[in-house]
Design brief:
Length: 261
């Protein structure tokens, strides 16, 4: 449990660092405030990782991380490079390799999987807000309304979130609804009112499943909004598993009718 909590804390630091770095890195110089915050979280991630590997009695790993920290302090904690779609923090990516290795070693799953769980947890807690008529004139009536409201929620947690992002390397005919570069996650929204629509959406996923594969994006989350209970979340998850997409491709079902009552 201590290892899991430590890894979760390091992941959070890396996510916060990327959020502040990416919020101003698209064609605009990084502000002093954002650079300071990003630097703080990168250094904190280094320190927490050093504490963890020392606790686990991994002297060789400790020396490697310590050497990386010395180099990072010399070159700059917010040193970056341009990736295929967006710039990235060099030291954050190097630290992720250690975190992923420790996570696998202790049977905690990949960092990607934990990031997916974080997003799903945020959406489950916020589902009531989607249908809150004190905030909106009515419950969602179409996919674009679900899309806009969910992005408003996620933007509070992931400052680099992009709506209808343009991918530098288009993936088949797939055009994602949202993208979160800092955790390399794409999101697709679906609006369902009947079993017939559920079948159509399932067929669409099955037909285009190969198009969702890309080395530039680790995670893909389908957000299924139902106006009434149509298809259980386990059924959508099973569908994705049958497609052979892997554990970093997932679905979450949000039911609007019960929350709107």
């Amino acid at each position: 449990m201590q290892v899991k909590a430590a890894i979760s804390s390091i992941e959070k630091c890396l996510r916060e660092a990327s959020n502040h770095f990416l919020s101003d890195s698209y064609g605009e110089p990084l502000t002093d405030d954002d650079e300071a915050v990003a630097s703080y979280y990168i250094e904190r991630a280094f320190i927490e990782l050093l504490v963890l590997v020392e606790h686990l009695n991994l002297p060789s790993t400790y020396r490697r991380v310590e050497s990386l920290l010395e180099q990072a302090l010399k070159d700059g904690l917010t040193k970056s490079k341009m990736g295929s779609d967006e710039p990235y923090l060099v030291w954050a990516e190097k630290l992720r390799m250690f975190v992923d290795g420790l996570s696998e070693l202790h049977g905690l799953g990949e960092t990607d999987a934990s990031e997916m769980r974080d997003i799903k947890s945020i959406l489950r807690r916020a589902v009531y807000m989607l249908c809150d008529t004190t905030l909106f004139a009515d419950v969602p009536k179409k996919e674009s309304e679900v899309h806009a409201r969910i992005e408003g929620i996620l933007k509070c947690h992931y400052q680099d979130l992009k709506s209808k992002p343009a991918l530098s390397k288009p993936i088949k005919k797939f055009e994602p609804d949202s993208a979160i570069p800092s955790i390399k996650t794409l999101i697709e929204y679906k609006f369902i009112t009947s079993k017939a629509e559920a079948k159509r959406v399932a067929d669409e996923i099955l037909a285009d499943v190969s198009g969702y594969r890309s080395p530039d994006w680790r995670n893909l989350l389908f957000v299924i909004y139902e106006t009434e209970r149509v298809m259980h979340e386990d059924e959508w998850t099973a569908l994705l598993q049958e497609c052979g997409l892997g554990r970093n491709y997932d679905a979450i079902v949000l039911s609007g009718s019960a929350k709107a009552a």
